[in-house]
Known about the structure:
With 279 residues, the protein is an alpha/beta fold. It has helices at residues 30-45, 67-78, 129-135, 163-171, 173-182, 188-193, 206-220, 223-236, 241-257, 259-269, and strands at residues 6-11, 14-19, 51-56, 118-122, 126-127, 139-143, 147-149, 186-187, 199-201. Helix 1 (30-45) links the parallel strand 2 (14-19) and strand 3. 38% of the residues are buried.
Amino acid sequence: MSYSDIAYAVDGAVATLTLNRPDALNAWTRTMEEEVHAAMSEAAADDAVRAIILTGAGRGFCAGADMNLLSGIQDGASSGGRTSDSVRAFDNAVDGGLSLPADFGMRYTYFPTVPKPIIAAINGPAAGLGLIMALYCDMRFASDAAVFTTAFSRRGLIAEHGISWMLPKLVGHANALDLLLSARKFGAVEAREMGLVNQVFPMDSFMDDVRAYAEEMATMVSPRSIRVMKRQVYAALLQPLEHAVLVANSEMPASFESEDFKEGVAHFVEKRAPQFSGR
C-alpha cells in the first residue's frame, strides 16, 4: 500500500512507521490517522514482522492535531455539526488482532490489539494527540532532545481520547493532574523519572539504539509469548487480581505444548540463537 502522510518500511523483522510531515512537526491529519491504522494492520498481518517502531520524521515526533483539523472541528461546532467522531463504534481494532475488551477498539485506543510490540521512538516534540498516540504504544523511548506537553488546557480543551485513564496508569494520579492541568512542557529526563518513558538515548545515536532494542526483541523473544503476554497485560488493566491469576493458569498448559516453548528450552540447552516460529 502507498502512503502520503506516513512512511512504512520493513527491515529484517522490524517494521518502522514514520509520521512523515516534517515541515509541520508531523502534526496529525485525518489522512495520517487512516494511514497509521492501515500500516499497523499491515504490520500485524505480516508474519515476517516481529516488532514495530513508531517515530517521526525530522526533528519532531508529533506536534498534535493539525491546526486545520482543529479549525474544521470549530467550524463544525459553530454550525451545529458533530464536533467529534470519537464516539464511533468499537470497530477500530486491527484485523486478526488480539482479543481484548471493546475499550481497546476505539478510534485511538487500538494499538494494544496489535499482536506485536509497538515501540514509540520519540525523537522530538510530542504534544497533545501526539503524546496520546505515544501513550498507547507498549513502550516509549525518548531522545534527549524530546519535549512533551499535554497541551489541551492551553487550547481550551479537555483530557482527550482516554488520556485521563492511561496517563495516571503510567505516571500516577498527582503527576497526571500536574501535566494535564498545567499543560507545561517537560523534558525527556523528567519523563523518565516519572515513568512516562522507559529509557532516554542520546539524539546522535537515538534511532540506532531504539532499533537495537527492537531487533533483540524480534530475534531473541518468542512471538507467541509476546502475543499472549501483551493480551494478558492489557486485559488485566480491567480485571481483578483473581481473574488475572486464573487467566495465567489457563494459559500455562498451552504454552507448555507450544513449539516456542520447545525451542526456548532447546536453544538454551544447546547454547545457540533461538529460531522461534511464533507457534
